[in-house]
Fold this protein.
Amino acid sequence: MEALLAFSRPALDWHALAPELTLLAFGTLITVVDIIWDDRSKQAMPTLAGIGLLATLLPVITLALDGTDRTMFGGAYVIDDFSLVLKALFLISGYVVILMSVDYIRDGDYYENEYYTLMLTSLLGMVMMSSSRDLISVFVALELLSIPAYMLAAWRKGGARSNEAGLKYYLMGVFASAVMLYGMSLVYGLAGSTAFGAIAEELGSLDSSPVAILGILFILIGFAFKVSAVPFHTWAPDTYEGAPTPVTAFLAVASKTAGMVALIQLVFVAFAGRDDVVQPFFWLIAALTMTIGNLIALRQTNIVRLLAYSGVAQGGFMLVPFAVAADAPARAVEAVVIYMAIYAFMNLGAFTVVLAVARKTRSGEIDSYGGLFQYAPGLAVAMTIFLAALAGIPPAGGWFAKFGLFRALLDAGGGWAAGLGVVVAVNTVIAFAYYARILGQMWFQPAPDGDERPVVMTGSLKAALAMTIIATMAFGILPGLVGHFGEVSVLSALGG
Amino acid sequence: MLLNQFLILGAVLFAVGVYGVLARKNGVMVLMSIELMLNAVNINLVVFGVQHGVVSGQVFALFVIAVAAAEVGVGLAIVLLLYRNRTSIDVEDFDLMRG
Amino acid sequence: MEVTGFDTWVLSLAVFLPLVGALIVMLIPKAYETELKLVALGSSLIALVVGAYIAIQFDYGAAGELQFVVDKGWIDVINSRYIVGLDGLSLPLLLLSLVVVPLCLIYSWNHIPDPGNPKAFFVLLLILSTGMNGSFVSQDMILFFVFFEVVLLPMYFLIGVWGGEDRRYASLKFFLYTLFGSALMIISFLALFFLSKDASGQLLQTFDMRVLTDVAGVGIIKSTQVWIFAGLFMGFGIKVPMFPFHTWLPDAHTQAPTVGSVILAAVLLKLGTYGFIRIAIPFLPEGAIAWAPWIGLLAVIGIIYGALGCLAQKDMKRLIAFSSVAHMGFVMLGIATLTDFGINAAVFGMVAHGLITGMLFFVAGSIKERYHTLEIARLGGLLKSAPRMGWILGFASMASLGLPGLAGFWGEFPAILSAYNPGAGLSEEVFRVYMVIAAIGTVLAAGYLLWLYQRTAFGEPTEEFAEQKIADVNRDEWIAWMPFLIGIVLFGVWPNLIFNVTDDVVSGITASVEAIAAGN
């Protein structure tokens, strides 16, 4: 009883929480507007969601300008440069996804208002994830971003494939959460605290405790499911293919990034002393994920599935720096952050083109891309830029992401890191082989059935395309833009 | 304190849950198995909390319980959706796409 | 040299003008075909004028130093800068690249291969031009890498869209080979970044090629140098291409449209050999010394293999492609000797091969256009049906086989001669064996080129084409070819035009290699 009376409300820094609160407010607002005006409000929903995301960016920017690190809830929730960079990344990716969704959701037979509410809720989880520095807050953020995503994946309620996508995503996701939680309970048991800093101290001093290794591995495996790392990737292609395409883009980019953000905090802070477990684990997982993702992607005929497997492989590339987490921590964090930022734009761009083309062809088969260069040269060039970026060919953005990987690996040095570098190099080549299939189809083949009607673009798709192209090219030609964000992230991620 | 016994209970519950997820075909039973896994986690958390004499374990367990409720809510909704469309809740029936 | 005013811009102008042209062309609707062609040609011609200005302003007394240097911030986070500069090694290659592109545009003016679409064709050629020009003037490894890669996609599309029947296979093969090489190359660049030290043992952490040339790999132990050199070897060697990585070349050449082949032969292959001379050897002298015998071995294998390959070909373009493998073998042999003489010959060989083989591909393209086949057995009597073209083919073949007085001679002969006395303590016995083999290669080269010429140009036209009227060289072709022909003669009778320019740079490189070799 005494303890209860002694409770005092923790000091809240409203400025620091402003992004989360704004997002929450707009999510609620959409629901309220929906209840009051019902169908009449439908037109306004995407706009409202978009404004919500942009409004949330404002406090993120003011916090960044303010520049002081803010810590809340006993260190469980931290606002620093690292978290702000990622919050901005999530919000902008979310904005692009909303632009992609507008016409897709309106034209299809979907619930509109709930769609945007759930999208904002999931983004709220991601925004929280970037600030979480404690097992409990990581867990809450993870579930907050995942649960709406399960529903979004099954959003085409009447469609058998969409249902199946939702089911597979849900089962795998929940199972992964349970495994991860079990690992967390073990780690908590050893450390006696849920804070990452305390965990790092305790785990670092326990050399060969099998329980510690088990706990760490369970947590990492749980997140390996989230970021669809091989061999825990099996849900991804089915879910990506079955889910509505904008949701697929959202899962492939935002959801994966959120998992990576959690991994960064766990690996570089909480498990900092346990490179004996972490580095071999990620070496293996990264090599497997890249290679198997790429090899299976080679055989795909459906473009969404191809992008799904390409996304798996790209996730493998992102996991590469974790394999040198202890040997070159600063370079590794930088590499992951830069990779995530560039990946977000190039992959969203590729999905935007897929959406635009599907408006005409009503097909996701790669064969249906024949003749695109003849009847929609703009889209073909855009897709070429995104695929070149994904393949890592300058001057499109992706090369700098790959470059960051090599830089982290060589900074760490040694045979294992160099070996992984060669694996990355080989995989870059394999990956191009399937990107080239799409390129070849678009550029070298005639349109199937000679159907050369132009593709009708809508304003929001054009806006999404413009944003992603500009970002992809800018990151490629002036990588300093994204490199700077990578650099500031390092300072705070490792400092905290 | 019976620390080890509790931990063994947790481990056994967890293992049973994993087995259920992997072996059961009925969607609802799979959900129940996942609940078992989560409860194993809760036992661990509470026990460790008591052992360390800190409250964070129990707090964590409360969060897990709350989130698990939300998760199962969504899960049941999805299973219900499937039942409406396919009149089956056997998870192995859903193989239109093969990863 | 203090760079001021306009001179700070000239190199960047020469590099980026074609790109600007490409962007403008992209904005012009397809229907305005003449206009967009004019813009494309105009931008490449202005770039050429800028190139001429550079050539005039260039201080030939200080050809060993970088001139027109611009050093501006670019990617601060990785300490990579926008550094461009030009010395005697870059100048001939930059000019070659600047000359070839407008000529290709003129040649294609009315000859856009199927499936047409001049807009895309010209845009790709201009982007290609920017990539090539940029590679030759970059003095920062990352900048070099970016330009080096920029050429890949346009070439891929040129082959893939406008190429022959197996174009998809050929374009993909070209791309995958080079991409693999460049991935290993960037790893090596990074290794250089992290391991390079200055004389006092301080880590440099720089991509600045000027600095890395100066330190000449002093801080990197030999075994590491050998590994890093291996990565660079893959990157540049595939591009050259050296045996056994050459297999993409015959396919790419055979399937590529005419101007694609010309640019590939005239400029793109030079990026590889240029990389060896500019980066691999000066940065890693010890690695170079360790690798030189192997490079020499692969070079002579390439010479013989290319020659024998030529003898087995039925297709004229494929034959020229194999002769490229052989010629680049001579260039690599010159480089492998690590002597002043040999590397100068190699640079000369690069320019000469660019002009001569480019010319041969032009003629092959025109023959293909008229006869709709390049099968040697079906051709014949070119001198009768189109005498001027026949003479040009003969002239280019003679130049290609190394006839003294034409440009080809000065690339091959000194390269062979230099192997008699290799530098940097390399084994004389080994290189003398190489020399003998390479000499046999020249005999074979004479054999296959004369055989080609005899079968296509002499005699009567085959029955199939006896009745057809074969048009002789037309105006566009004269304009496009004349500079090549003049160049071949000019450099043939006056080789010092190039040797004098390149020698300062090359002797600087070989001197530092010799110094390292003497220190061991």
Notes: Residues 329-361 of chain A form the longest helix (33 residues). The beta strands of chain A are 70-72, 77-79.
